[in-house]
């Protein structure tokens, strides 16, 4: 819940110091140095690149958490319960690190587009929309700009909330990092062209595997959240079941079609798909969509992530931290 509060109130870490930006820069350097010599060799290099990125991100994060938790910073009493300052700091840092792996609020990207559409400035709205979608947006009408916003918002619900949330609940911080590294590498290398079809093979497939369950259960939480935005839970489920295969991705169609059904709108990507049964979205539907996803994110974290983490994930995370701390104690430091 602390991580969700950070996401909704404080937003993202500045791009210049964002860990994912650093990982992206490292991937760019690896990309330039990896020689593609045969399919098997290149696929193996893609797998080893993922292992390297995962290990670096995981090890640095867990060293920070292990050192904080073992530090003697004194303590305080809250409601008759003794609590060490190190534990309080550990919780806060853990929340920030978890926040790095997920995003529940999309209004910071969509609200400026809403304002442009409300002011009738289609060119400015299209330019801002180009920053959140891969398709060409120049010359789009208001309805297709609104559709682009609702599509990317709903599509990212599974990848940006449910998947990191589930694996954080099951495996602690390691699980969230495991998924985010695969998802980031898929976004950067997961293209079916000559340059990346082999190098990005493993991260793309692993991302699909990790997202298989979460994309499908995401529709349940979208249906639950639809009640709060005047939507239809029944249509969310039925539309997802009937139309989820419309997208090229095996997973993204589930939250997208569920959102379209819940909001009673259609989403259209020219020459690729038309999903949903209502009209194309209006400006107001952009607001309804990101509100729908924010509520669905809260419900998922409350009902899935938090219980799993309390029962399973935190114990695995603390065990890993303890192992790292023992390794650090074995090093003959000069001080």
Q: In what order do the strands lie side by side in the largest sheet?
A: 1-2
Order of helices and strands: HHHEEHHHHHHHHEEH
Sheet of most strands: 2 strands, antiparallel
- Helical percentage: over 70%
Structural class: mainly alpha
Our count of helices gives 12
Distance between the termini: 39 Å
Mean pLDDT: 90
Beta-sheet strand percentage?
Answer: under 5%
Q: Can you put this structure into words, describing what you see?
A:
The structure is a single chain. The protein is mainly α. It has helices at 2-10, 19-33, 39-70, 85-101, 107-118, 122-129, 142-171, 173-189, 201-226, 233-243, 253-263, 283-330; strands spanning 75-78, 81-84, 266-269, 273-276. The strands form two sheets. Strands 1-2 form a two-stranded antiparallel sheet. A two-stranded antiparallel ribbon has the order 3-4. A hairpin with a 3-residue loop joins strand 3 (266-269) and strand 4. The longest helix is centred in the last third of the chain and has 48 residues, at 283-330. It is globular, with a radius of gyration of 21 Å. The two termini are 39 Å apart. The model has no long low-confidence stretch (mean pLDDT 90).
Summarize the structure.
This protein has 335 residues and is mainly α. It is 70% helix and 5% strand.
């Amino acid at each position: 819940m602390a991580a969700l509060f950070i996401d909704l109130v404080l937003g993202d870490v500045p791009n210049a110091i964002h860990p994912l930006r650093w990982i992206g820069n490292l991937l760019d350097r690896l990309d330039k140095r990896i020689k593609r010599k045969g399919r098997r060799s290149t696929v193996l290099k893609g797998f080893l690149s993922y292992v390297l990125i995962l290990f670096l991100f995981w090890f640095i994060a867990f060293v920070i958490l292990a050192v904080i938790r073992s530090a003697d910073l004194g303590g305080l009493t809250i409601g008759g319960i003794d609590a060490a300052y190190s534990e309080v700091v550990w919780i806060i840092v853990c929340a920030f690190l978890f926040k790095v792996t997920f995003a529940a609020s999309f209004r910071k990207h969509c609200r400026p587009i809403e304002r442009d559409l409300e002011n009738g400035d289609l060119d400015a709205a299209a330019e801002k929309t180009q920053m959140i979608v891969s398709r060409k947006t120049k010359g789009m009408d208001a309805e297709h700009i609104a559709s682009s916003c609702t599509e990317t918002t709903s599509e990212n619900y599974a990848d940006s909330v449910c998947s990191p949330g589930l694996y954080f609940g099951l495996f602690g911080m390691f699980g969230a990092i495991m998924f985010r590294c695969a998802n980031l590498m898929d976004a950067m290398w997961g293209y079916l062209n000559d340059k990346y079809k082999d190098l990005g093979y493993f991260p793309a497939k692993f991302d699909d595997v990790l997202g298989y369950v979460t994309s499908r259960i995401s529709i349940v939480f979208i249906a639950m959240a639809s009640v709060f935005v005047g939507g239809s839970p029944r249509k969310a489920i039925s539309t997802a079941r009937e139309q989820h295969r419309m997208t090229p991705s095996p997973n993204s169609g589930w939250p997208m079609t569920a959102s379209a059904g819940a909001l009673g709108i259609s989403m259209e990507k020219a020459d690729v798909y038309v999903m949903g049964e209502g009209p194309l979205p209006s400006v107001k539907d952009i607001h309804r969509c990101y509100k729908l996803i924010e509520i669905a994110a809260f419900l998922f974290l409350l009902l899935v992530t938090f219980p799993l983490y309390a029962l399973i994930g935190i114990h695995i995370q603390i065990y890993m931290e303890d192992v790292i701390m023992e390794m650090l104690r074995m090093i003959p430091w000069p001080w």
